[in-house]
Design a protein that fits this description.
By secondary structure, the protein is mainly beta. Helix content is 2%, strand content 48%. The protein has 2 helices and 29 strands. The strands form 3 sheets. The protein has an 8-stranded antiparallel beta barrel. Strands 3-4-5-6-7-11-12-14 form an 8-stranded antiparallel barrel. A 4-stranded antiparallel sheet has the order 27-26-28-29, with no helix packed on it. A hairpin with a 5-residue loop joins strand 9 and strand 10 (161-164). The longest helix is centred in the N-terminal third of the chain and has 5 residues, at 81-85. The two termini are 35 Å apart.
């Protein structure tokens, strides 16, 4: 199959990649704080700009239309961490896009979703279905008294960020339906989330190289589950052994995998890995949640060394398992207070990581029990996805019992 996504080498690049080693401070008193728009760099507004009034950001009902699932990856900016390293970090997620009957496509907002959840952007498919245009200037709600908008910004040599009002364009692959943003990164132009208050503007975050891959049988194998085990160190320096379930989608289109549950601190987030020439599964620095980034590194006698330009290669086993003896650190920037100095701090660290051989998703590790009535019942489709109730066709019904055991059966409705 033709590889639609970037090659392995390209996935390791960034906006202005500069590998650096930093010391991460381990301090249990520090708690991750939300980034304030007042601390973000300014954006230059045109004096004749006309802005639509913003509405308060709130969860919205999904628009009407045909729902299609996509895996998305992009390269995103991380406040202060990106300032130090001059790079964009990779981020992956699973989105549901809605296709309306009139050619409108509703795309979930992907920038700062912790503050602007379930907000949809509107795009328009061309008549021939080969391009998708997402207009700039769309309102995403209000935040800290700022009206939030989708725009593009252009960075100049003197560090100024200018607002660009042209649409964000995507190409649509004719064979697979993959959406790829037309990147203008070489010109210093990026899709951005901008807050505006009168004639004051603040750049909250920006991204680039969005790619949406349809979750179809043509592009993805059936998902499997893996068991992740690792030694976990929390922000207080306490070490424990962790076991977690990872939902794993094999993705030949990217020569790799999308995995949910891989990041212990953010189990609902997705990670993306690609294969190198030796068959090892490689992870580059990635964003598991707003303003956090997971990077490889090592523990040393004087502190924790992390490498923003590094990669973690998981060695493959004969049974389909993977292992990594190094460390991955989940770090964030803290602006400081009366006790703690500004700098990078650690949410958690994972070492000696193992991903077991795969089992079928949704039914892996099921045990049969005859111990009375079930205390809970869960439903899954044949892809291993959890659903609210049994749908028409073949379903997997998992019954849980008080002693912790489970029983799974296939049910045809």
């Amino acid at each position: 199959m033709k590889k639609i996504l970037l090659a392995a080498v390209a996935l390791l690049t960034s906006a202005a990649g500069m590998a650096q080693t930093e010391i991460v401070k381990i301090n249990p008193q520090v708690k991750k704080q939300a980034v304030s728009l007042k601390n973000i760099r300014g954006v230059k507004l045109s004096p004749d700009m006309k802005l639509a009034p913003a509405t308060r950001a709130a969860a919205k009902a999904m628009p009407e239309g045909e729902q299609r699932e996509f895996f998305r990856y992009s390269y995103d900016y991380i406040y202060s961490i990106s300032d130090d390293t001059q790079r964009l970090f990779m981020r992956a997620d699973k989105d549901t896009l809605v296709y309306g009957s009139d050619g409108t496509v509703y795309i979930p907002n992907s920038m700062y979703t912790s503050m602007l959840p379930q907000v949809y952007l509107e795009g328009t498919l061309s008549a021939d279905g080969t391009t998708l245009s997402v207009p700039a200037g769309q309102s995403l709600g209000t935040l800290e008294g700022y009206d939030m908008y989708l725009y593009k910004v252009q960075f100049t040599d003197n560090g100024q960020a200018n607002l660009i009002e042209t649409p964000i364009e995507y190409t649509v692959d004719a064979n697979y339906g993959v959406l790829q943003q037309v990147s203008e990164g070489e010109e210093g132009i990026y899709p951005a989330l901008v807050g505006i208050q009168g004639q004051n503007a603040a750049l909250l975050t920006y991204s680039d190289m969005y790619t949406y891959i349809p979750v179809t049988e043509q592009l993805f194998a059936q998902p499997v589950q893996r068991t992740l085990t690792c030694e976990y160190t929390n922000s207080a320096g306490q070490v424990s052994n962790v076991t977690a379930t990872v939902e794993d989608y094999d993705a030949p289109v990217v020569n790799g995998r999308f995995m949910k549950g891989f990041f212990c601190d953010n189990p609902e987030s997705w990670a993306i890995g690609i294969y190198d020439e030796s068959g090892n599964l490689v992870f580059v620095p990635q964003i598991p949640a707003d303003e956090c980034v997971v990077v490889p590194g090592e523990n040393t006698a004087t502190g924790t060394n992390i490498d923003f330009g590094g990669q973690a290669a998981f060695t493959s086993g004969a049974d389909g398992s993977y292992s990594y003896t190094g460390a991955l650190f989940n770090v964030f920037y803290y602006a400081g207070d009366n006790v703690n100095a500004p700098g990078l701090y650690m949410n958690g660290a994972y070492e000696n990581i193992s991903l077991s051989a795969p089992t079928p998703a949704g039914i892996g590790g099921v045990e049969v029990s005859d111990n009375g009535e079930a205390v809970a019942t869960e439903y899954y489709d044949l892809s291993g996805r959890r659903v609210n109730s049994a749908d028409k066709g073949v379903n997997i019904v998992v019954k849980k019992y008080a002693d912790g055991t489970k029983k799974a059966v296939k049910v045809i409705k």
